[in-house]
Amino acid sequence: MSDGRLPAPPTREAARAAAKAIRAALADPATAGERRVAHVLLARPRRGTWLTAWSNLPGLTLDRRGRSYTHALLPGWQYTPGEMKTEMIEDLERFAETGEQPKESTR
Fold it and tell me: Kind of pairing, strands 48-54 and 35-41?
């Protein structure tokens, strides 16, 4: 049950920890933790998607086709697997340093 308060805004420390954890998981996939898969039903009938997440990578999800990663600290942004290695980590690190989320696509 909710007490009516909004969740705390994302912190720079959370972004720094997320970037570090993703970098470590790319170097050694065993550090990603347990893989979890969930089915999310969307509003329209017959519409839904499967999402994959990992226990040691909070906020990171992969869509069912393996085409795009998203992170809770970077709302509205999707990254291909190749971009995750370069752009997502850089965006998280930039957020950790400046407190600003990305505003422009680098594609």
Answer: antiparallel
User: pLDDT value at position 8?
Assistant: 66
pLDDT single digits (tens) 32-68:
999 999 988 877 766 788 899 999 999 999 988 778 9
Place of tokens 């969740």: 7
Q: What is the pTM of this model?
A: 0.81
User: Phi, psi at residue 18, to the nearest 5°?
Assistant: -65, -45
Phi, psi for residue 23 in degrees, rounded to 5:
-60, -45
Token code pair at residue 43: 């509003």
Give the integer Cα–Cα distance in Å for 78 and 73: 12
In DSSP notation, 20-64 reads HHHHHHHH-GGGG--EEEEEEE-SSTT-EEEEEEETTSTTEEEET
Order of strands, sheet of 48-54, starting from the edge strand that comes earlier in the sequence: 35-41, 48-54, 60-63, 69-71
